[in-house]
Design brief:
CATH superfamily: P-loop containing nucleotide triphosphate hydrolases
Number of helices: 9
CATH class: Alpha Beta
Radius of gyration: 18 Å
CATH topology: Rossmann fold
Distance between the termini: 10 Å
């Protein structure tokens, strides 16, 4: 594969409601652009597992079911973005979630990085279908979807039992959507001058093709 370089480092931000496909497309986009995919979930797990100072702070909030404060999320993110593999940028998944986070990222990186913001839109009825149909193997963790990737005989290929995560229920989804509308939807207006809107109702291969086709930052093949 040819190397890909940029005129300036790229920060790609994926926005959209829960179930819109951010976690699906962010790793593929990172691979396509040859820059890391950084998710807040992975950052939390890595810092907690390694017992870093910031990870211990985050765990203190998570253990009590509280949201991790913006300053802790940003400290983790900025430390990660200073690592060598991020010298050409990164695809961000799950951050920013709030205007405070978005403004802090602007202050830290707008002069040195090209910001690209992609909004994945999706009909709410399809959000419910996508999320509430997800199941995973209790034994090996393999994910399935009862409609789009159904298991055979209601069992995993390894023979394990399939279970649904508690937060993949319709009741929890409604709570997550309310938090999204209150905290994250204002970012759509904030990023409006550079926002690219992608219809997420299409099959995932088509959505990814549209993300690449409409990408504002043109990669240069060396």
């Amino acid at each position: 594969m040819a190397d890909i370089t940029f005129n300036s480092p790229a920060l790609v931000i994926l926005l959209g409601p829960p179930g819109a496909g951010k976690g699906t497309h962010a790793p593929s986009l990172g691979s396509h652009l040859l820059i890391p995919h950084i998710s807040t979930g992975d950052l939390f797990r890595q810092n907690i597992c390694n017992r870093t100072t910031i990870g211990i702070k985050a765990k203190g909030f998570m253990d009590y079911g509280r949201l991790v404060p913006d300053e802790i999320v940003l400290e983790m993110l900025f430390a990660r973005l200073k690592q060598e593999d991020c010298k050409r940028g990164a695809v961000l998944d799950g951050v920013p979630r709030t205007l405070i986070q978005a403004r802090a990222i602007d202050r830290e990186f707008s002069k040195t990085h090209k910001l690209n913001v992609i909004l994945l839109t999706l009909d709410e009825s399809l959000l419910v279908e996508r999320i509430c149909g997800r199941v995973a193997c209790k034994q090996c963790g393999r994910p399935y979807h009862r409609k789009y990737d159904p298991p055979k005989n209601e069992l995993c290929a390894c023979g394990g039992t399939l279970v649904q995560r508690v937060d993949d229920s319709e009741e929890v989804l409604k709570q997550r959507l309310e938090i999204y509308r209150r905290q994250t939807e204002p970012l759509i207006e904030y990023y409006k001058p550079i926002l690219q809107e992608i219809d997420g109702n299409q099959p995932k291969q088509e959505v990814f093709r549209n993300i690449i086709k409409n990408f504002t930052l043109e990669p240069i093949h060396a």
